[in-house]
Amino acid sequence: MGRHFIHPLAYLLLFERMAAPVNDWIDEPGVYRPLLRLSWPVLLEQGLALLVGFSDTILTGHYLSESHLAAVNLMAYLLWLLYGLFSVVAIGASALVARYVGARRIMMAERFMHQALLVGFLVAVPSAILAAVLGPKIIAFLQLQGTSAKAAQSYWEIVIPAMPFVMLSAVGIACLRGAGAMVQGLIIMTIVNIVNIAVSWAFCLGFGPCPRWGWEGIAFGTACGYCVGGVVTLLILVRGLAGLRLRWRMFRYQGKLVYRLLRVGIPGGLETLSMILCQLWFVAIVNALGDKAAAAHGVALRIESLAFLPGAAFQVAAATMTGQYLGARQPHKATRGVIAACVLAGLVMGTGAILFYTFPLQLASLMVGDHQRDIAHLAAPLLRTIAVGIPPLVFVTIFSGALRGAGDTRWPLLFSLIGLLGVRIPGAYWLTLPGVVLPGVALPVPGWGLGVLGAWYAMVADLYLRACLTTWRFVHGGWKTIRV
C-alpha cells in the first residue's frame, strides 16, 4: 500500500484513549452481541442492493452501449435522490421509535410510525408529479447529452410512478429498524432485489415470453422491484411486528407529534438531501468531461460501494443502539456501541481498501466487456485514490449514524455542508478542469486539469475534513443530552 495508506486501526487507537479503556468496552457483554444482531441483516440487505447495482452495470456494460453505461451510473444517483426525499421522515421516525422502544413506551413509538407514514404520503404524491415534470431539466443540469440524456429520460419516466411505493418501504423499514426489527428489512429488500434483477434481465435480453426491451427493460425491473417492496412492507406493518402495528384509526394528523418528528428529521433529512444534491452537482462536473469519464466514475463507484457496504450496515446498527440506549438512560453503552461499530467497520472496510489499492484494474475489468477496456483503465486509478479515503469514511459513516440515532441531527448537517460546499465541489472544479470561470472574473482561474481523477482527489479531501469534524462532535458528548 505504501506510505500513503493509513490503516483504520491507527485511527481507532485514538478512541481507546478518548472514550474508554479497551478492556472496559471489548468485554462489555451488552454491546457487541446487540451490535452484531442489529448489523448482520442490514449487511445482507445492503449486499443485495449492491448486487442490483452490479447487475445493472454488468448488464449495461456487456450488452448495451457506452452512452447507456453513462446513463445507468447517473440513474444510480437519481434513485438515491428518490430515497433521500423521504429521509426527513425516515430519520425522524427511526430516532423517535428507537427512543420510545428503549424506554418501553411502545404505544408512543406506534403513534410516531403512523404520523411518519402520513407525512411520507403527503410528500410522495406531489414529489412524483414534480419529478416527472422536471425530469428533462434535471438531466440537462447533470450535463448528460445526446443518446445518454435520452436514455436517462426514458428510465426516469418509467421509475417515477413507483415513488409512493418507495416511500412505503423507506419509511416503513426505518420504523422497523428503530424498533430493532432488522430481519424484516432484510426480507423486504431481498424480495425487492430478486424481482428487480429477474425482471431487468428478462425484459432487457428477452428471455422466454418476455419481449426484448433493452434499456427500458432495466428501468421496468427497477420499478417492479419498488412496487413489490412497498406492498410487502405494508403487509408486514398491517400484520404487526416488534410492537408496531398499522391501525387505520390512528392515521389522524397530530400536529405536536409531527412537529417533534420534523424537529429531529428535518436537519437529518436536509443533511441527506444536501449530500445527494451536492453529489449530483459533483457528478455533473464529471459528466461534463464526456461519456468515458462518466462511465469510469460510475464503475469505480460501484466497486467502492463494496467497502462502503459494511459501513452502512454498522451505521444503521449504531444509530439504533444509540437511540435505544439513550432511551433506556444508558449513555455509556451507547458510547461503547458506537466505538465497537467503528472497530468492526474499520477492520472490514480496511480490507476492502487494501484490495482496491492492490488490484484496481482487475476489479474494474470485471464490470465491463472487452469492447470497453479503456473505461477499466480509466477507473483503476480512481480505486487507488479512494483506498486512501476509506479510513476517514469509517468515522464519517459511523459517527454520523450515531448522531442521527441520538437525534443530534444539526451537527452532521453542518459538517456535510462544510465538507461538500467548502471542499468537494470547489476542489472538483479546480482539480478537474484546466481553467475555472468564476462570476465577475474576466479570465479563468487556472486549474490542474486532472480530469475525473482530480474529482476523486477532492472527494478524499472532503472525507478527511468531515472525519475530523464528526469525531470532535462524538468526543464532545453533547449528543448524549439531546432531547427529542
Automatic annotation (TrEMBL):
CDD domains: MATE_NorM_like (cd13137)
Subcellular location: Cell membrane
GO BP: any one term: monoatomic ion transport
Membrane-spanning parts: 74-97, 117-142, 154-174, 186-208, 220-241, 261-286, 306-326, 338-359, 379-399, 411-433, 445-465
Gene Ontology CC: plasma membrane
GO molecular-function terms, A-Z: antiporter activity; xenobiotic transmembrane transporter activity
PANTHER family according to UniProt: FMN_FAD EXPORTER YEEO-RELATED, MULTIDRUG RESISTANCE PROTEIN NORM-RELATED
Protein name (record): Multidrug-efflux transporter
Organism: Thermogutta terrifontis
